[in-house]
Amino acid sequence: MNRLRATLSPYFLVLPGGLWLAIFFVIPAVFMLSLSLQTGDVVSGFSPTWSFSNYTNAIGLYHTQLLRSLAYGLAATILAIVLAYPMAYWIAFHGGTRKSTYLLLMLLPFFVSFVLRTTAWSFLLSDNGILLAPLKSWGLLPADFHVLATAPAVVLGLTYNWLPFMVLPIYLALDRVDHRIVEAGRDLYAGRTAIFTKIILPLSLPGVFAGVIMTFVPASSDFVNSQVLGGTANTMIGNVIQSQYFVASNYPIASVLSFTLMALLLIGIFAYARALGTKDIMEAAAR
Amino acid sequence: MNRAALHRGLTMSRRSLLLAGGVSLGLAACGVKGQQKPPPTQQEITSYWAGQSRHGKLNFANWPLYMDDKRTQLKQFTQATGTTVKYQEVIQDDPSWFGRIQPQLAAGQSIGYDLMVMTNGIELTKMQLLGYLVPLDHSRLPNFAQYAGPTYKKEIFDPGNLYTIPWTSGITGIGYNPKYVKKEITSIADLWDPAYAGKVGMFSATDELGYFGMYKLGINPASAGPADWKKSAATLKQQRDKGIVRAYYDQTYIKSLANGDIWITMAWSGDIFQQNVSEGTGLKFVIPKEGGSLWTDNMCIPLTAENPVDALQLMDFFYQPKIAAGLAEYINYVTPVPATQAVIRAQAAAATGDDQDSLTEIADSPLVYPSATDYARLHSFRPLTPTEDRTFQDIFQPIIQG
């Protein structure tokens, strides 16, 4: 009896999470897969026709937006690492007793709605707004200079909106670094650079890995930033999916694009994990 | 026939309801049955309304800036009838509104509103074809019969006003900021002028955008087909690829025009007027010589409405010339009630100073009371069948999604 309980208890533990995933991820994913192979329209109905040509059509039409989304997501992720690593480093090693205050300060803007925060950026970056107007009137920028409706505006917006998802995991990894190892390094005459590159950086990589996944995936599929901050050449795949679904009521194409995006993201992440050495990273991240 | 029977008659079987609801949630494994329904018979309409009664309350979903902040006309309605109205400005654009209510309507659930305002266009056509709207009982719309302008009783998108009566009409033309645009704008070609590169706004709604491309090329949209649409798309694509268009806007264009992010843009007549009144910006609006679009925002009752009688009563109330005049003075779009012009003139004669000036301006405004020549230059969106709409969307969607 006891042995049976011991064998079964792990399954019971995994049951709530498993059910959650099955109901809210697996089932919709299966239906979406089926939808992606159907043809028709919202009034006369959709029927399963196994039309794999949906995929070639949609990718042919929207490969630019797909690739652009990955590029923007990647750019935002790299920018987020550049900004987040020093922040996390400083809080973890120099935050002292106020660590949690600093973390709270960093998170504070994120208590405001996502759309509102992004709209605030469009006010700040407006052509004659409070940032650009003075620079233009001092002659530091040409009169027709603008940030809004450009790729950098979208990438900056994405970076800003997902920064905490990069800071937090890196901070956690850095905070767990055993100071005795650092001391040991010093005892063995390692310089500051050597301590960072040989001890701290490798130990913090699992945090960076987690941060990259948590930033890259949502940033690549976002549609708010490109809508609010972007122009005609900055449409991301999220916008296409959204308008195919809601405007054109073309559910098959929207499903096709969602699946393609998912596949691309998975390939990207597995390639990245492989490059970093998946096993070590996953184990280290889980520790 | 009771309401449930009308439900069956007008919509679809329970099974296809569930399937339709499922698709919207991404939950349909097999095909979705066609939901198209023939128009209801007169008998079905009569018996639907016979089974309804007044409840003394209703919920009204409308667009922003379509009634003053004090909701004057609703207070007048409550005073006259005792019915209270909960008014919410929840509609920002037709596609997202349709996207929001469609799953609930497909599942036969209340959308929380008894009266709503939708523009003529593919979403409204879909609502009609899917049987999501209550056919109107015209015996309860005496004011509409008496006071609505003749144009508004023969709209091509809803013959005989079976499901809708107009809330207001409006004109899509060109708006510009004379602070930056020094010459007088008269032509659609000005939206393609490289001098304004990066400062031109276009609309993201595909019908609005596609029609402007057709006006530019001198194509009559009423008889245009896919070949013409493709020509229009080509010229719009060229405009985009040359970097002339800054972005494709929804309602947000008006803020961008006012703060100088864009200088010249496709615009809705009343927005420019209201923006100038509220913030003193001297923006200008023109109907281009090649043509402009005349659209109509229509009041209609969703099939799952809980208080349809109250909704119908309110719809008719808005057609009393005095009430309609109050709305026209605030909305500044084209009013469907021509008799309001005399009412506003009379009010102007009685008023003094600034009030008199602004009332006279409205009564004389060609944007509120377009002349016959203006009407001749304006085109309504031709209702498209769902198949045509697919083609139309496939041609114009890729432009917005550059």
Automatic annotation (TrEMBL), chain A:
Domain of life: Bacteria
Subcellular location(s) per record: Cell membrane
Stretches that traverse the bilayer: 12-37, 70-91, 103-125, 145-174, 195-217, 253-273
CDD domains according to UniProt: TM_PBP2 (cd06261)
UniProt xrefs under InterPro entries: MetI-like, MetI-like_sf
Domain ABC transmembrane type-1: 66-272
Gene3D superfamilies named in the record: MetI-like (1.10.3720.10)
Annotated membrane topology: Multi-pass membrane protein
Keyword presence, Transmembrane: yes
Main location: membrane
UniProt cross-references to SUPFAM superfamilies, sorted A to Z: MetI-like
Keywords from the named record: Cell membrane, Membrane, Transmembrane, Transmembrane helix, Transport
Family, per entry: Belongs to the binding-protein-dependent transport system permease family. CysTW subfamily.
Name of the protein in question: ABC transporter permease
TrEMBL record, chain B:
Keyword terms of this UniProt record: Periplasm, Signal, Transport
Statement: the UniProt record of this protein carries the keyword Cell membrane: no
Domain of life: Bacteria
Chain segments annotated as coiled-coil in the UniProt record: none
A Pfam family matched in the record: SBP_bac_8
PROSITE patterns on file: PROKAR_LIPOPROTEIN
Localization annotation: Periplasm
Major location (coarse): periplasm
Record-linked Gene3D superfamilies: Periplasmic binding protein-like II
InterPro entries, alphabetized: SBP (IPR006059), Sperm_putr-bd (IPR001188)
Protein name: Spermidine/putrescine ABC transporter substrate-binding protein
Species this chain originates from: Fodinicola feengrottensis
